[in-house]
Design brief:
- This protein has about 240 residues and is α/β, with parallel strands linked by helices.
- About 45% of the residues lie in helices and about 15% in strands.
- It has one domain: NAD(P)-binding Rossmann-like Domain (Rossmann fold), CATH 3.40.50.
- It has eight helices and seven strands.
- It has a seven-stranded parallel β-sheet with strand order 3-2-1-4-5-6-7, sandwiched between helices.
- Strand 2, helix 2 and strand 3 form a beta-alpha-beta unit.
- The radius of gyration is 17 Å and the shape is globular.
- It starts with a strand and ends in a 7-residue tail after the last strand.
- GO terms for molecular function: oxidoreductase activity, acting on the CH-OH group of donors, NAD or NADP as acceptor; quinone binding.
- It comes from Pseudomonas grimontii.
Amino acid sequence: MKKLIVTGAANGIGRATVEKAIQAGYFVIGADKDAEGIRALQRAYTADVLEAHVADFSDNAVIKGFIPALYERHVTIHALVNNAGIYHGKSVYAYSDAEVDEILTVNLKALVYLSKDFAEREMQHEAPRSIVNIASVAGEVGSCDALYGATKAAVIGLTKANAWNFAPFVRVNAVSPALIHDTAIYDTIPEYRRAEYARQEILKDPILPGGVAEVILLVISDAMRHITGKVIPVDNGAYPR
């Protein structure tokens, strides 16, 4: 049974990825700062398919220690999905200094440490492994939340750099969703931005967390073994680029 790490596992894309991965036969290691959400996952799945952790990826000690601690119990892990992220949907002028530090840590710095610690251990096996970073269309075309857009643009840059850094054994790709319905973030996006996303989409089937999760599982699968350093959009054709 292949093992898969999913951060931000308690809700939204992360929760959907956990569910679909277990359905597909993976053993999932899920982590989130939402303790109640993690407990809900533990109630839904047995220990033979899910290992759940409460972990706050805004904490430097957590982001530096999370992967090393996992490898005290696991010999090898097939893939890492860096999904945990923060979106405030507000002007850069409204950010406090603490919020700036937090979003930079969760959305970018955590990915740096989790990715390098995972790749360092898995490259020793000289076997195919995969990292998927969750970016956003906001990282490609901008965002009303400048800090969110900036961090997601940086995630895309990190993805491309780490595809070089971790080759030839660890593939690194980004999945870049547009407007995702049925998530906590959806309601925090200003209405005019939601309308703009809808206007741009040329496919009209609303993007749901499960749809993004299906793409994530495809990206880590052997079917995508020749793909690395790429940004895979899940956006209903919005913002052709």
